[in-house]
């Protein structure tokens, strides 16, 4: 949860900086950074989930990388919990990828309207 809150705050800050700096299409560029963070999260959580399925890899169940630990935290770790976090992060990443062209087209159209 803390990872999500920090990521959102950073993205709002980056978006605001992009907007104030006069960068062309600041929202789509901020969204692209969000997509990169989402994909890194998906990779970390998928590696953590698959690692937890190998009983020989750990003595019990544990978090296998620091990014997964930041995302999951100190919750009661189970295979189901790891799978749930992985699934949810995949859905978020997919949603952001679908949202990206919509934001890009909207920004491009609004920029053209401002020029005319």
Walkthrough of the structure:
The protein is an all-alpha fold and 116 residues long. It has one domain. The protein has 4 helices and no strands. The chain has helices at residues 2-20, 26-52, 66-72, 79-115. It is elongated, with a radius of gyration of 18 Å. The mean pLDDT is 90.
Short description:
78% of the residues lie in helices and 0% in strands.
Key words describing this protein structure:
mainly alpha; 116 residues
Give the oligomer, counting copies of the same chain as homo and different chains as hetero: single chain
How much β-strand is present in the residues? under 5%
Q: What is the terminal-to-terminal distance? A: 44 Å
Structural class: mainly alpha
The total beta strand count reads 0
Give the overall shape, derived from the CA principal axes. elongated
What gyration radius follows from the Cα positions, in whole Å?
18 Å
Q: How many distinct helices?
A: 4
Point out poorly predicted stretches: none
Mean pLDDT: 90
Return the domain count.
1
Q: Topology as H/E string?
A: HHHH
Approximate helicity band? over 70%
**Biggest sheet overview:** none
Keywords: Membrane, Transmembrane, Transmembrane helix
Transmembrane segments: 31-49, 88-106
Strand and helix layout:
Layout: H1 2-20, H2 26-52, H3 66-72, H4 79-115
């Amino acid at each position: 949860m803390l990872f999500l809150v920090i990521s959102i705050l950073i993205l709002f800050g980056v978006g605001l900086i992009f907007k104030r700096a006069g960068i062309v299409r600041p929202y789509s560029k901020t969204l692209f950074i969000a997509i990169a963070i989402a994909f890194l999260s998906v990779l970390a959580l998928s590696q953590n989930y698959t690692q937890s399925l190998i009983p020989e890899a750990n003595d019990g169940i544990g978090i296998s990388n620091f990014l997964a630990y930041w995302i999951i935290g100190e919750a009661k770790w189970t295979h189901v919990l790891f799978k749930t976090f992985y699934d949810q992060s995949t859905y978020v990443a997919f949603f952001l990828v679908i949202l990206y062209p919509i934001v890009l087209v909207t920004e491009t159209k609004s920029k053209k309207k401002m020029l005319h």
